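Question (not urgent): is this output format expected?
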Amino acid sequence: MHGHSRLGRPKSGGVGAGPGSHSSSSSSSWSKFVFLLMSAIFRRRGLLLFAPLLYISGMLLYMGSLSFDVVLVHKHPRPHPGSLYTTPLLFHNLWPFMEADNASSPNVLMKAWNLNEDRRWKPCANKTLSQIELPKSNGYLIIEANGGLNQQRLSICDAVAVAGLLNATLVIPIFHLNSVWRDSSHFGDIFDENFFIQSLEKHVHVVRELPVDVLERFGNNVSNIVNLRVKAWSSPSYYIKKVLPHLLEMSVVRIAPFSNRLAPSVPSKIQGLRCFANYEALRFSEPIRSLAETMVDRMIKHSSQSGGKYVSVHLRFEEDMVAFSCCVYDGGAEEKHEMDIARERSWRGKFRRKHRIIKPGVHRVEGRCPLTPLEVGMMLRGMGFDNTTLVYVAAGKIYKEQKYMAPLKQMFPRLLTKYTLATAEELAQFKRHSSRLAALDYTVCLHSEAFVTTQGGNFPHFLMGHRRYMYGGHSKTIKPEKRKLVVLFDNPDVRWEVFKQQMKDMLQHSDERGTDVKKTGESLYTFPMPDCMSKQVEPNNENIVVTQDRLSLDYEDPFLKDWQLFINQ
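Got this back:
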């Protein structure tokens, strides 16, 4: 028997050389074939384009003739930084340093904002409106306000503006029962109806209900009045050209729904009506106002050691918000099951539509996920708010409250909500009325030294505008940069000093943005300057008032100018 090598020729030649000799001969033949083939191709330039393909094919055939063991290694790609909720791990690592920092650092609450007293904005909503006697009304305007408290507020203010534009008499808005908010409150349950009508009497006609003779024409049923379907963000010209003719013909028009039905940019006089309605004519009903003022007084007394200053947080971590965001936290299969049920209950099939792809990691990286109570607490502690800070949390029922609120209470033991600040007896009349409860939260947040918004929406947007209107043009609001936060929270090795500096930079950025002026397309309900406020500058002790006309170009529409001349005749 002749021995043979797996990689070479047999030690002795001959006919009986064995299978190794055959394999070597085959490989050599393939090598010669590939060489001859490539030589032929290179002699004919027209075939050069096929050279790479033929070469690779030949090499694969050649390699396939050898006996190699191939091992495929599957690598899982590393998750994008910030795409996973790993904040509890970071908190565990940083908590000892937070605790040690309490005694060594002063509370930032006393100096959170850089307010320039010499360059303050002052409310001028009253001054932008004419005091002339109102002309005879062209008819009645009925609108339906839907959504939560501040969505309704937006509809009311826009309705006042449209009524002024059309020279119509506004009927006190009807509140539509929302499937999510589930609040059956009427206008007078939430807002002071008498005050609203009296405040607007020199600017817009307002009545509580349609006159009997008008209602009888429609079978005593408002729903029989033709509903005009107005597109979202419609211009003033649209209302004049499309809605006014119906009003003049029928003496009454109905628009439902009325959410976001007026464009942000309108003539200054119409903007003035929006300003006046929101900041001067709308105030909460007496029961809400009375309890809310009591709650604010209690917050001020509880924070006497910090000069009556406290922090308010709008925490959007209710079950419906977590479900709607489609973000994933640390609850595993149980959380997924609960969120699926919540989405189906409130939005019936919206999230199961064909071709709809939900990417929780992408949502988180893009800053679209609600901050957890833990993340809000870590951010505030990093900014310099210590554990003596009085914190008011405005929220509905927090998802898995016991689990998610525990670390926030650990960081801020002096934490209060409407349920701990007011007694059960005081809150009894507001039970099962989410908009009235939200009005209590709104008032306590309005009077805080620092307001923290965590997830956007009408509540913080209106609050930021209202706070600017109250505090000389500064919103005094912390608006987290969530795209940066999620990356930082996903780094368990970050040092406390580095984390603190990042948070302080974020606080400074919020301070700088606090006095932002409204830009084109933005809402005056969030940015009341310059439409609703004038700027007071005091160089060399001489008062100079800069109004809207000197800060922004007025709205120009030749058609509307002609219309104004017509109705003022």
